[in-house]
Request: fold
Amino acid sequence: MKQLSLLLPALLFFLSAQAEPIEIPYESIGGKMRVAVEINGIPEFLIFDTGGQTTLTGALARQLGLPPAGVRSVTDVNSVTAEYPMALVERLSFPGSEQGILQVQALIVESDIYTCYGAGGMIGNDILRHFRMTIDSRESLITLDRTEAPPVIGLRHMSLFVEDNRTMPVFGISLSDGNVLNVLLDTGADTFLTLSEQDFHRLAGGSSFDILARGIGAGITGIGSVSEQSEIFRVRF
Reply:
Protein backbone atom coordinates (compact mmCIF):
# COMPACT_ATOMS: atom_id res chain seq x y z
CA MET A 1 0.00 0.00 0.00
CA LYS A 2 1.48 3.29 -1.07
CA GLN A 3 -0.44 5.75 1.05
CA LEU A 4 -2.36 5.72 4.29
CA SER A 5 -4.58 8.68 5.07
CA LEU A 6 -6.04 9.47 8.48
CA LEU A 7 -8.67 12.10 9.12
CA LEU A 8 -7.98 13.70 12.47
CA PRO A 9 -9.41 16.90 13.98
CA ALA A 10 -7.77 20.42 13.70
CA LEU A 11 -5.08 21.61 16.25
CA LEU A 12 -3.22 23.14 19.22
CA PHE A 13 -1.15 26.33 19.03
CA PHE A 14 0.93 27.24 15.97
CA LEU A 15 3.77 29.57 15.21
CA SER A 16 2.22 30.50 11.88
CA ALA A 17 -1.37 31.30 11.03
CA GLN A 18 -0.83 29.80 7.57
CA ALA A 19 -2.39 26.34 7.35
CA GLU A 20 0.20 24.91 4.98
CA PRO A 21 0.73 21.12 5.04
CA ILE A 22 3.90 19.96 6.78
CA GLU A 23 5.97 17.38 4.88
CA ILE A 24 8.20 15.24 7.07
CA PRO A 25 10.66 12.73 5.59
CA TYR A 26 11.20 9.66 7.73
CA GLU A 27 13.69 6.83 7.83
CA SER A 28 13.20 3.29 9.09
CA ILE A 29 15.53 2.43 11.98
CA GLY A 30 15.08 -1.00 13.52
CA GLY A 31 11.48 -1.13 12.32
CA LYS A 32 10.66 2.31 13.75
CA MET A 33 9.88 5.52 11.86
CA ARG A 34 12.40 8.19 12.86
CA VAL A 35 11.87 11.86 12.00
CA ALA A 36 13.98 14.98 12.36
CA VAL A 37 12.53 17.70 14.58
CA GLU A 38 13.61 20.88 16.30
CA ILE A 39 12.89 21.15 20.01
CA ASN A 40 13.11 24.80 21.08
CA GLY A 41 15.27 25.31 18.00
CA ILE A 42 17.66 22.42 18.80
CA PRO A 43 17.88 19.63 16.15
CA GLU A 44 16.89 16.20 17.42
CA PHE A 45 15.39 12.92 16.22
CA LEU A 46 12.14 11.43 17.53
CA ILE A 47 10.33 8.17 16.84
CA PHE A 48 7.02 8.77 15.02
CA ASP A 49 4.51 6.68 16.96
CA THR A 50 0.75 6.99 16.42
CA GLY A 51 0.12 4.52 19.25
CA GLY A 52 2.10 6.33 21.94
CA GLN A 53 2.34 9.62 23.81
CA THR A 54 4.92 12.30 23.19
CA THR A 55 7.93 11.37 25.30
CA LEU A 56 11.48 12.62 25.85
CA THR A 57 14.35 10.97 27.67
CA GLY A 58 15.40 12.46 30.97
CA ALA A 59 18.88 13.09 29.57
CA LEU A 60 17.51 15.16 26.69
CA ALA A 61 15.12 17.11 28.94
CA ARG A 62 18.01 18.05 31.23
CA GLN A 63 20.24 18.93 28.29
CA LEU A 64 17.56 21.30 26.96
CA GLY A 65 16.76 22.69 30.39
CA LEU A 66 13.04 22.03 29.96
CA PRO A 67 10.81 23.32 32.78
CA PRO A 68 8.68 20.78 34.69
CA ALA A 69 4.95 20.56 33.89
CA GLY A 70 3.49 18.33 36.56
CA VAL A 71 3.05 14.54 36.72
CA ARG A 72 0.89 12.18 34.65
CA SER A 73 -0.24 8.62 35.35
CA VAL A 74 0.23 6.41 32.26
CA THR A 75 -0.57 2.76 31.52
CA ASP A 76 1.75 1.35 28.86
CA VAL A 77 1.33 -1.45 26.33
CA ASN A 78 2.25 -4.02 29.01
CA SER A 79 -0.58 -2.77 31.29
CA VAL A 80 2.01 -1.34 33.70
CA THR A 81 0.78 1.90 35.29
CA ALA A 82 3.26 4.43 36.64
CA GLU A 83 3.56 8.16 37.21
CA TYR A 84 5.91 10.15 35.00
CA PRO A 85 7.12 13.72 35.30
CA MET A 86 6.13 16.06 32.48
CA ALA A 87 8.18 18.78 30.83
CA LEU A 88 7.07 21.75 28.78
CA VAL A 89 8.46 22.18 25.26
CA GLU A 90 8.01 25.78 24.19
CA ARG A 91 8.22 24.97 20.48
CA LEU A 92 8.26 21.75 18.47
CA SER A 93 8.87 22.17 14.75
CA PHE A 94 10.18 20.34 11.71
CA PRO A 95 13.19 21.30 9.56
CA GLY A 96 12.23 23.19 6.41
CA SER A 97 8.78 24.16 7.67
CA GLU A 98 7.65 27.49 9.10
CA GLN A 99 4.88 25.68 10.97
CA GLY A 100 5.43 24.86 14.62
CA ILE A 101 3.54 23.57 17.64
CA LEU A 102 3.72 25.58 20.85
CA GLN A 103 3.44 24.57 24.50
CA VAL A 104 3.86 20.81 24.05
CA GLN A 105 3.76 18.68 27.18
CA ALA A 106 5.99 15.60 27.04
CA LEU A 107 6.42 12.62 29.32
CA ILE A 108 9.93 12.26 30.74
CA VAL A 109 11.36 8.74 31.05
CA GLU A 110 14.68 7.67 32.53
CA SER A 111 15.31 4.97 29.95
CA ASP A 112 17.67 4.04 27.12
CA ILE A 113 14.81 2.65 25.01
CA TYR A 114 15.12 5.41 22.39
CA THR A 115 18.89 5.78 22.25
CA CYS A 116 19.31 2.50 20.34
CA TYR A 117 17.32 4.16 17.53
CA GLY A 118 19.40 7.31 17.66
CA ALA A 119 16.43 9.25 19.02
CA GLY A 120 15.69 11.36 22.07
CA GLY A 121 12.07 10.22 22.49
CA MET A 122 8.93 10.00 20.40
CA ILE A 123 6.22 12.20 18.96
CA GLY A 124 2.89 10.58 19.76
CA ASN A 125 -0.82 10.57 19.18
CA ASP A 126 -1.52 13.35 21.69
CA ILE A 127 -0.09 15.68 18.99
CA LEU A 128 -0.77 13.70 15.82
CA ARG A 129 -4.50 13.22 16.48
CA HIS A 130 -5.07 16.90 15.74
CA PHE A 131 -4.00 16.56 12.09
CA ARG A 132 -5.14 14.98 8.87
CA MET A 133 -2.18 12.70 8.27
CA THR A 134 -0.91 10.88 5.19
CA ILE A 135 1.90 8.31 5.28
CA ASP A 136 3.51 7.59 1.91
CA SER A 137 5.63 4.48 2.44
CA ARG A 138 7.13 4.52 -1.08
CA GLU A 139 8.46 8.04 -0.68
CA SER A 140 9.10 7.67 3.07
CA LEU A 141 7.14 10.86 3.59
CA ILE A 142 4.60 11.93 6.22
CA THR A 143 2.26 14.85 5.52
CA LEU A 144 0.47 16.61 8.36
CA ASP A 145 -2.35 18.92 7.39
CA ARG A 146 -4.68 20.94 9.63
CA THR A 147 -6.84 22.46 6.89
CA GLU A 148 -10.56 21.78 6.71
CA ALA A 149 -10.45 20.74 3.06
CA PRO A 150 -12.49 17.61 2.25
CA PRO A 151 -10.53 14.35 1.86
CA VAL A 152 -9.47 13.32 -1.64
CA ILE A 153 -10.17 9.66 -0.94
CA GLY A 154 -13.67 8.29 -1.51
CA LEU A 155 -15.77 7.34 1.51
CA ARG A 156 -16.10 3.79 0.21
CA HIS A 157 -12.35 3.35 0.73
CA MET A 158 -12.26 4.87 4.22
CA SER A 159 -12.24 3.17 7.62
CA LEU A 160 -13.74 5.37 10.32
CA PHE A 161 -12.28 5.43 13.80
CA VAL A 162 -14.23 3.84 16.63
CA GLU A 163 -16.34 6.66 18.07
CA ASP A 164 -16.00 5.64 21.72
CA ASN A 165 -12.19 5.82 21.49
CA ARG A 166 -11.58 9.34 20.21
CA THR A 167 -8.20 9.74 21.86
CA MET A 168 -6.47 6.94 19.94
CA PRO A 169 -6.64 5.85 16.25
CA VAL A 170 -8.70 2.67 16.71
CA PHE A 171 -10.78 1.28 13.85
CA GLY A 172 -12.55 -1.96 12.97
CA ILE A 173 -11.44 -4.58 10.45
CA SER A 174 -13.62 -7.41 9.15
CA LEU A 175 -12.32 -10.97 8.90
CA SER A 176 -13.38 -13.51 6.31
CA ASP A 177 -15.55 -15.44 8.79
CA GLY A 178 -17.53 -12.35 9.79
CA ASN A 179 -15.68 -11.53 12.99
CA VAL A 180 -14.66 -7.92 13.57
CA LEU A 181 -11.49 -6.73 15.31
CA ASN A 182 -10.91 -3.29 16.74
CA VAL A 183 -7.25 -2.48 16.08
CA LEU A 184 -4.94 0.35 17.04
CA LEU A 185 -3.06 2.02 14.21
CA ASP A 186 0.40 2.00 15.76
CA THR A 187 3.34 3.06 13.60
CA GLY A 188 5.63 2.12 16.49
CA ALA A 189 4.64 -1.56 16.35
CA ASP A 190 7.10 -4.17 15.13
CA THR A 191 4.60 -6.14 13.02
CA PHE A 192 1.75 -5.37 10.64
CA LEU A 193 -0.92 -6.93 12.86
CA THR A 194 -0.66 -8.23 16.41
CA LEU A 195 -3.53 -9.96 18.20
CA SER A 196 -4.15 -9.43 21.88
CA GLU A 197 -4.19 -12.59 23.97
CA GLN A 198 -7.94 -12.13 24.48
CA ASP A 199 -8.67 -11.84 20.74
CA PHE A 200 -6.36 -14.75 19.93
CA HIS A 201 -8.23 -17.12 22.25
CA ARG A 202 -11.59 -15.76 21.09
CA LEU A 203 -10.79 -16.51 17.44
CA ALA A 204 -8.59 -19.62 17.81
CA GLY A 205 -11.50 -22.06 17.81
CA GLY A 206 -13.03 -20.71 14.61
CA SER A 207 -12.04 -20.25 10.98
CA SER A 208 -10.51 -16.75 11.23
CA PHE A 209 -6.92 -17.98 10.94
CA ASP A 210 -4.62 -21.01 10.77
CA ILE A 211 -1.71 -21.37 13.19
CA LEU A 212 1.53 -21.72 11.19
CA ALA A 213 4.10 -21.81 13.98
CA ARG A 214 4.58 -21.31 17.69
CA GLY A 215 7.55 -20.39 19.82
CA ILE A 216 8.92 -18.10 22.52
CA GLY A 217 9.00 -14.38 21.76
CA ALA A 218 10.99 -11.49 23.18
CA GLY A 219 9.38 -9.14 25.66
CA ILE A 220 7.37 -6.16 24.44
CA THR A 221 8.87 -2.77 25.23
CA GLY A 222 6.54 -0.17 26.75
CA ILE A 223 7.20 3.37 27.94
CA GLY A 224 8.69 2.21 31.20
CA SER A 225 8.61 -1.59 31.14
CA VAL A 226 9.61 -4.67 29.19
CA SER A 227 7.33 -7.69 29.39
CA GLU A 228 8.65 -11.15 30.08
CA GLN A 229 9.22 -13.59 27.25
CA SER A 230 6.07 -15.49 26.40
CA GLU A 231 4.65 -17.99 23.95
CA ILE A 232 3.85 -16.48 20.56
CA PHE A 233 2.07 -17.78 17.48
CA ARG A 234 2.43 -17.00 13.79
CA VAL A 235 -0.96 -17.16 12.08
CA ARG A 236 -2.39 -16.78 8.57
CA PHE A 237 -5.78 -15.15 8.05
Residues 1-13 have pLDDT under 50 and may be disordered. DSSP finds three helices and 15 strands in the chain.
